[in-house]
Amino acid sequence: MEHTPSQLNGWMKDALGILLLFTFVILFFSMDLFKDGGLFTLPSSWLNVNTIFLGIVIEAVPFILLGVFISALIQVYVSEDTIQRYVPKKAYAALLPAAMLGAIFPICECAIIPVVRRLIKKGMPLHVGVVFLVAAPILNPVVAASTYFAFRNDLTVFYTRFGLAFVLSIIIGAILYTIFKNSDQLKVQKDELLGNGMAAAATPSPKPQSSGIKRTVYHAADEFFLMGKFLIAGAFIAAMFQTFLDRSLLLAIGSSDWASTGVMMAFAFVLSLCSEADAFVAASFGSMFTTGSIAAFLVYGPMLDLKNTIMLFAFFKTKFVLIFMSVVTVTVFTSIMILQLFIL
Fold it and tell me: Which of 129, 137, 285, 304 could make a disulfide contact with 109, Cβ separation 3.0–4.6 Å?
């Protein structure tokens, strides 16, 4: 069967992602061969890139799997009518329930994008999806527990993180609704247009009479291949930034409230930590940065980091992503400045 250039291009991207991951795994298990005195010598900085890259991927993959299976369950078992029935008809009235819903599901920022994408495709309004996108990675019970244990000696950061995340998720959703209303901001994937691709070629589409479990597995496999290559690209870029970025420069300009907040938000974006583990890293900065800047790190990172930005650009229209990034950045920074001025 003859393949179109678009199909071949898609397969090449998938193959490149798998090759990159395979190369880093081989490097990790053969680390001794590449250190000083080994068979080959690689600069320590590149070995560090390898270690950080694998750390991000290994940390993220379980949550990506969780996300794609939830997405597949939504595809198979949740109808468009059900979503339309339970989402409030008034746009602004839907914001509060969406933020509250984010407190129920144990989904981090690695897993939330496929879930929100699927819900929007099923008919959830864009602004409700945005609220869920920024609220769920912070407000969920697993993140609450990890943050509590990391800051149990002083719960100021704990209360600031969750109070701010709840309020800002509603504000961000309202701003995005004002700008985009309910317009379609999802990109149509080439695999969806063609009905195939690497994953689809490997797994034939399930027949309509297939069981729900079979269809869930098929959809999850397709989604995992689709998301996985962008996760790998994002993890690689994040590892490069973590290794080669001069952190001492950022630390040097972090002496004031506004500068330290900006520095910690930049750290959160570059480090691309999972929201279920970032509190322990944030606690280690406690002696160097203000309470407000630590809170900024913990609120901004799960809403927007380098890893999920790559995925956002892959699945949402560029204009939407740029405006979303701007709104999240400005609202988080401004709110932290206000809190530091009057409360913290």
Answer: 137
Q: What angle separates helix 156-180 from helix 318-342, to the nearest 10 degrees?
A: 140
Beta strands (DSSP E) in the chain are none
Distance between CA atoms of residues 146 and 186, nearest Å: 33
Task: Measure the CA–CA gap between 214 and 137, rounded to whole angstroms.
Answer: 29
3-state secondary structure of 186: strand
Among candidate residues 274, 284, 270, the one with its CA nearest the CA of residue 138: 274
- Spatial CB neighbours of 128, under 8 Å, sequence gap ≥ 6: 87, 94, 95, 98, 173
Cα–Cα nearest to 149, from 257, 277, 332, 330: 277
127 close to 174: Cβ distance less than 8 angstroms: yes
| Token pair belonging to 274 | 């999972």
Which whole-number Å values give the CA distances from 232 to 100, 199, 236, 323, in the listed order?
A: 31, 16, 6, 24
Spatial separation of the C-alpha atoms in residues 313 and 309, rounded to whole Å: 6
Q: How many residues does the chain have?
A: 344
Tens of pLDDT, residues 301-339? 999 998 889 889 999 999 999 999 999 999 999 999 999
| pTM: predicted TM-score of the whole model, two decimal places | 0.74
Contact assessment for residue 84 and residue 122, using Cβ atoms and an 8 Å cutoff: no
* Residues 121-148 pLDDT 10s: 888 899 999 999 999 899 988 788 888 9
Q: How far is CA 340 from CA 35, 69, 147, 285, 337, in A?
A: 47, 40, 20, 17, 5
**Residues in contact with 322: Cβ distance below 8 Å, sequence separation at least 6, in sequence order:** none
Which tokens go with 211?
Answer: 């069981």
Helix axes 126-139, 109-121, angle to 10 degrees: 160
Specify whether the backbone of 197 is left (phi greater than 0), alpha (psi in -120 to 50) or beta. left
Six-digit token pair at 208?
A: 């309509």
CA distance 110 to 136: 11
